[in-house]
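Quick question, first post here. What does this chain look like in 3D?
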Amino acid sequence: MKHVFAVLLLSLPAICVAKSPACHNWPTSMAQVNLQNAGLLPNIDDTKTKAVLVAPEKIGKDSYGEQLWRQVYHITFHDQNGSVIKVVTVDNAGEEECSITGVDVFVVSQHFPSQEHVIKGLDYSDPQTKR
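> Answer (accepted):
Ran it through. Tokens below.
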């Protein structure tokens, strides 16, 4: 009985702490297509593109019992002339499939960060960031 309890106790963190899937490629690609189609960023320098997961949220399970997530990304694009466009994307992803839904893309015109810089992985030294 002690062994069963010990195994259950040790496996509890793995059950409780599910990690959002790494699905930055899907929203990044869809945002890039939207920006290019709108003529906002015609010559993207892919080597400088950076996607930061801002907020993952469990939203339920699909018909196969797979966990579904709503993911919010902050993505920074650079073009070959030095222009920068930042977007926020929202989409749903599964554990096995990132493209469960389309991607909503919001172009960020200004960012007024807090003193604590609460989004880990975001470049707060960027001149477009105010403060």
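The longest helix spans residues 2-16.
Residues 20-131 form one domain.
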